[in-house]
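re: ur question from earlier - yeah i can do the single chain one, its not a big deal. heres the input i used so u can compare w yours
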Amino acid sequence: MKQPFQNWNCWLSVILWWLLGNENGAVMTRNSRPNIVLLMADDLGVGDLSCYGNNTMSTPNIDRLAREGVMLTQHLAAASMCSPSRAAFLTGRYPIRSGMASSFNLNRALTWLGGSAGLPANETTFAKLLQHRGYRTGLIGKWHQGLSHASRDDHCHHPLNHGFDYFYGVPFGLISDCQPSKTPELHRWLRAKLWISTAAAALFPLLLYIPRYAGWFSVPWKVIVSFALLVFLFFTAWYSSYGFTRRWNCILMRNHEIVQQPMKEERVSSLMLREALSFIERYKGGPFLLFVSFLHVHTPLITKKKFFGHSKYGLYGDNVEEMDWMVGKIVEALEQECLTNHTLVYFTSDNGGSLESQDGAAQTGGWNGIYRGGKGMGGLEGGIRVPGIFRWPTVLEPGKVIDEPTSLMDIYPTLSYIGGGILLQDRIIDGRNLMPLLEGRVSHSDHEFLFHYCGVYLHSVRWHQKDCATVWKVHYVTPKFHPAGADACYSSVLCSCSGDVDFHDPPLLFDISRDPAEARLLNTDNEALFDSVIKKIERALREHRKTITPVPQQFSVFNTIWKPWLQPCCGSFPFCGCDKEDAP
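and the output i got, formated as tokens:
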């Protein structure tokens, strides 16, 4: 009898809302500041969802959001890697503007939680905007925007310093090392002995320096450096058996406190779902912003046992379907609290699926549908085209499909608009308010040009003509796939942004409004048309480059290397470890 009673409560709240509102229900809902639930997958391919054309994967809950809301088919990430893409999502700005773009091929995302890189304090996230408008803001799940900068506990890049009132999740991100090694860890007493012996060995190069410094006799620098290098290699060899990557990067936090180190991968999904539902229960009086940043579907594909064998695509498919189940539980909680009509729900992914992610013959990364390329591949569609689903009953027309260029950066000005915030005037905001497009008040996206970077290097530009539906895409640089004839960079795991790439002069031109798979090159079809399109795009590119001002690079070598004094630690460093969480 409980469910009918809840339904009557929901109907009563709707009737009261209409009686107390005015004729324009949409305006009333927006002016009363709706709740906002943002759902972001990690490395989900746009081709993995049934609503985007996959007829072999079961995603009924995400499909329901699309059926009851608006679906964007040309929704684009500002980068094809997680850290820069998420920085752009949070700030509404290209990652290069905040320094969250790399000039190096290897460290294009944060590589160590004990590094000093992160989203700069002078950047303002949509969470901070809404926090100032009276929203209670929470982040559950992956952050991957840095943690500390000068000391272990300063937490200057922490979510709570970027507008979130509550954080429960992984400050880094999910990596393959987050699952226990098949090799047992060393016993504590043996680790202690090895630590003491390493410290003693490290003193030896210093002792060799004393005679040289005192002037007794000269010890060649090569000898001192060689001994120091041997000590370092010895330390690395035994400490890797201790599983330091897992213990130092894969941790679970509640606000500023470490609650699991290392994270217990078999429990983390249940814990995060519990926290998301608890946040809705606590702040159902609203308004609230809940950002659920799933660890799914990044390797190592942590999945509950009850979902094993659930799909046709092995562990990856099982992981997708578990995430869909979690989405269903969150949507169900909104319904039970009678919040459905007063809540904007948005689902997306941070970038495209990873084509190189494999475990033997099994694919452990996503499928990007008809689009070329994948994660880490600059401006190729498969790496930047992501799902974009908005559901807001009473405001957005159900079942609507929009094939206009939109961006993850658009969430920032869109949330500012519906939450009653004011966009900052002291910086460039690259995103555009999506509400006129979503509501059908306009039929054309505000984006005329979108610039697709790979790190700090511009690879591609998209031009959406104002007077028609044509969308041109020009490639100046594309990845060089290897081995030869492959469709990804299997030899190096990640494609390069510079150096080992193909430069195109003249550039490659595609009409992706008619050829989204970028299969038909237009360079020689119509020379006059080609020249006019390229000239228009290059004029826009010159103007865009004038707006880029130099800022400190967060992904410099120094910022991204591991620093012992910045390593978050529960317990005694370096033997960090704790579990303060009860089983869900």
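Confidence is low (pLDDT under 50) at residues 1-6, 20-30. not sure if urs matches, ping me
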